[in-house]
Design goal:
Blueprint: E1 5-11, H1 18-34, E2 39-41, H2 52-55, H3 75-87, E3 90-99, E4 106-113, E5 119-124, E6 130-132, E7 138-140, E8 145-146, E9 153-156, E10 159-163, H4 172-180, E11 185-187, H5 194-212, E12 215-218, E13 222-226, E14 229-232, E15 235-238, E16 244-248, E17 253-259, H6 261-270
Parallel strand pairs: 1-2, 2-3, 4-8, 10-11, 11-12
Antiparallel strand pairs: 1-17, 3-4, 4-5, 6-7, 9-10, 12-15, 13-14, 15-16
Helix pairs in contact: 1-3
Amino acid sequence: MSRLTRTAAIQLCATPDVDGNLRTAEHLCREAAEAGAEVIMLPEAFAFLGPEREKRSVLEPLPAIGERARAAPGPVLARCQALARETGCHLILGGFHESSPDPEKCYNTCVHLTPDGNVAAAYRKIHLFDISLADGTQLRESSRTLAGDSVVTTRLPFGVLGLSVCYDIRFPYLYQKLADQGATVLTVPSAFTRTTGAAHWHVLLRARAIECQSYVVAAAQHGHNWGKRTSYGHSLIIDPWGQVLAELKDGNGFICADIDPAEVNRVRAELPSLQHRRQLK
């Protein structure tokens, strides 16, 4: 049975320092749990954000969903599993650097850990961030990352959560598919650049909430990560009517809000736009 669930989004500034990043994440997750959160969501690349050549050393495999792990977890996953058990919370690892069959590339994977530390779901980011901006920012995620090809949902105390990562937010059809699969909450862990964030972050997240009539929880990176890489921040929790319930503009910290399944049902009943969709020729 779905129920009212206090949910937190963590905001941090990850750098190439994996241990430092994890210590910050652990501290903030403990604080969120003490504030009553049952579900805690971390941003994309929470454990490492730095040069691609350095990222090779932090890649780790994930166990197959529903199967006993055949080997001990890597150090990042092990610490996250221990944190889930310590806090008794569901953790959404917003962007886990998962190893792949290609030694030159990895997956950018959103992972659901249950309170006992098990991997309940894993979504590999489908849309990869390849851009060249007028301010000189150039990013080619596809050069070192493999795209996923599966839509993934997972069950939490508030109901069904639809998984996505960052750049996915620009592709509405993904979120429509998640809503079709029963999602009432959408997670968008991100490391938006300052330039694209200032222009598009709020409007894209509110649009996905409104058109899917779902809560949106977007845990974000903020600040100077490394080199010329600076993230926008502004972690958000948005309700199914598109109202911002909580926002952290800058700095390390967390935001919380109560996710209410009854509010999703109310909005979808009063304005049944999901039922009014038509197949176009």
